[in-house]
Amino acid sequence: MTGNNTNGSGLHPFALYRLYAWTIRRIAERGQLLHVFVYGSLPTANHRVRLSRLSHECPLPESSLLEIFRLVEELTSIRNASKPMKVPDGNYEHHLKLGTWLSTPQTLLQSDTSIFPDPSTFIPDRFIETDKETGSRVARYGELEPWGSGSAVCRGRTFAEKEFMDIAACFITLWDMEKMPKAHGSSRV
Asked: Which residues cross the membrane (predicted)?
C-alpha cells in the first residue's frame, strides 16, 4: 500500500488554547515546567530552555498534548493498493484490486471506546504510563497515530511536537493567564 496522510493545519493556536483551558493550573501547580528553565532570579528574554528536560521530564504537558491531538486532529489516511489483496473484516473478506483507493479517517480509531474509554472526555493524563525499566512516569502515544502511520508517517513529527511543547512551555511559564468570568454564557481565557 502506498499513500499519504492529511493533517489539520490550524492545530497550534487551537491546541494552545485547549492546553490552557484544561490543564494550565494543574501543570503549573505541579511545577512540571519550572525546572526546565535556567534562571538567574527572574526569567528574562535571555533565559534558556533545557529542551531535553522538557521532552523527558514533563509527562503531564506532553500527555495533554497527545489528548488534544486525539480529540481535535482529524487526520485521514489515504492509501492505494499496490497489488491485489484480501482484507479480513469479521465474517467478511474484502477483495481489493490493484489501484483501489482507500480512505480511513483516524477519528474512528480516536473515538473507539474499546481503545480510549470515555472518548469524548478530555483526560489530560490518559497517555501517562509508568516505564517498566526506570519506574518513571512517561507520556506515550499508545494506539494514537496523530502523525499518520507506515511509510507515509509525517517526517517532521518530532520537530513539530518539540516546537509545540517549547511554545506551550514558554507561554505557561512566562505569562499568567486565568479564566475570565462568564459573560453572556461563555468563558474565555
From this structure: none
pLDDT (tens digit per residue) in 116-151: 999 988 888 899 999 999 998 888 988 888 777 777
Q: What is the DSSP letter of 117?
A: S
What amino acid occupies position 113?
Answer: T
Contact in structure between 152 and 77 (CB atoms under 8 Å) = yes
**Alpha carbons 113 and 110: distance in angstroms, whole number:** 9
Q: For 45-76, what is each residue's pLDDT tens digit?
A: 555 556 666 667 778 878 888 888 888 777 77
Which residues sit opposite 6 in a β-bridge?
76
8 A C-beta contact, residue 63 and residue 126: yes
C-alpha to C-alpha distance for 139 and 136, rounded to whole angstroms: 10
Domains delineated in the chain: 2-110+121-174 (1.10.630.10)
Closest CA to 78 of 8, 160, 149, 11: 149
